[in-house]
Each structure stands twice: as structure tokens, then as C-alpha cells.
Amino acid sequence: MVTRSWLFDAMIYMYALSLLFYFSDFANANRNAKRMGTGLLLFVWVLQTVYLGLNLYDHLTQWAFERSDVLFMFSWLIVTISLIVNRFFRIELFVFFVNVLGFAILALNVFGNPRVKPIIAGWDINDELLFIHITLAIGSYAAFSIAAIFSGMYLFLHRMLKEKKFSQTVMRLPSLEKIEQYTYTAVIIGAPLLMLALSLGIVWVLLEGNNNLLYDPKVLNSVFILLAYAFYLFQHYAMRISGNKLAVWNLTAFVIVVINFVVSNFLSGFHGWIWS
């Protein structure tokens, strides 16, 4: 059964959005975010179930499972289990991480399936995988940039207040508490987006069949970025660290982002096209 990729593209984007809401719920104990994440994940499950049912019906006349069928069933099972766990237990972080795995498996199934055809004529199916990977990565970079701007504002405002310099500019800025919350929210958005972008990048490498690309400077530096922001979230969420120290760490993590975007692209074996 040949299928156009628009259905899977929509499925993947909704899957990614649902994981953003789940991560937001874990970080902020936001019930509305959890409901949104569950609703989107349930819709993904419905689409998967319909496609799986049609695919199984198609196999009634020719019973033969391919690798893509097994991977799709595995991804469907992960979503099913996570929905059950989410309904009866409060372990949001488990639901998030198990669905990152499900997300990667779904992408591997979709873009490694020769029966899935790209939407745009002239594109290879892997071009769509790269397009989704790039949009998620750009989204994460944008979120980290916003977080860095807020951290800079925090340090500036903190210094002005400490020195009792109440200028018109200072009076127009949000409070330190609000700026810190805005920074935290931006990182909450950026970190899972980067994680999902990395998972799609790994899927692309597996489909290319060149595992040496996993050691590319761009890939390794992206892992360091993810760890840096994970430590930021750990300091905020678990260690209850706030204020200048957290703002400085956030700016330090953003320096790694800048290094990744500028320096690594000159050293990367397959990301140099960004500067072409």
C-alpha cells in the first residue's frame, strides 16, 4: 500500500508537539499542558491505529510482514502503553522518554519505508526527514536565543537594582521573577525540540548506513548543548538554584550553541551546506 508522506508528517509533528506539552507538564506541573499533550498523543494513536488496521487488512490476501510493519507496530505499542501509564500513574518523565523512543522508531519506519512517497515531486523521502529535523533544530535554537536574551536582561536588571539606578529603561522591564520564569519556559521548549531533532538526525544516519557520522563534530557538540541545558533544568528544578548563577549558566550554554552553529559547521562533514 503506497502512502503519501503528508499523513506521517502530520503524525510526526503532532507527536513532537505532544512531547513538548508533556515535558512542560513535568517541568511546571501544568495540568493544562498534560491534557493538551495527552489529547495530541491520543490523536497520534488514532491515526496510527487506522493506518495499522488498513495495513493489516491489506495483508489478509498476502500475509507477509516487512521490517516497516514491525517497526510501526512497535511504535504503536509504545504509544498505547504510554497512554495507559499516563492514565493510571503520575510518572510524566517516563511517558516523555518512552515516547522519544517511540518518536524515533516511527520516524525510522516512515522514512525507511519504500512505500511512503514524498509530498513534493523531485524530493527523496530522506529530504522530508531532513526538513523535519532542520525545523525542529531551528525551533530549539530560536528558543535558546530567547532564553539567552532574557538571561542578559536578568543580569542587567539585577545589577541596576543592586546599584539603585532606577532609570526609565529599568522601570519598563519585567520583574526579575518574571524574567527568570520566561527564561525557564524558553529552555523547556528548546531542550525537548533539540532532543527530538537529534533523534531524527540519528535516524537519518542509520538510514544512510554510515555510522561514522555519529562522531561528527556537529553531532557531538549538539549532545553537549543538550547536556548543558539539561543541567540548567536540573539546577532550576531539583537544586532550586535561581538568580545570577542560573542566568550565567544559561548564557554559558548559549555560547556552546553559537559555537555549534558557527564553528562546527566548518568542521562538520555533512553540515557545511548551511554556509553554502
From TrEMBL:
InterPro entries: Cyt_c_assembly, YpjD/HemX. One of its GO terms (molecular function) is heme binding. This is Cytochrome c biogenesis protein CcsA. Keywords: Membrane, Transmembrane, Transmembrane helix. The keyword Amino-acid biosynthesis does not apply. One of its GO terms (biological process) is cytochrome complex assembly. It holds the Pfam family Cytochrom_C_asm. The chain crosses the membrane at residues 6-24, 36-57, 69-86, 93-111, 131-157, 182-207, 219-234, 246-267. Residues 70-271 form the Cytochrome c assembly protein domain. It comes from Paenibacillus sp. SYP-B3998. It comes from the Bacteria.
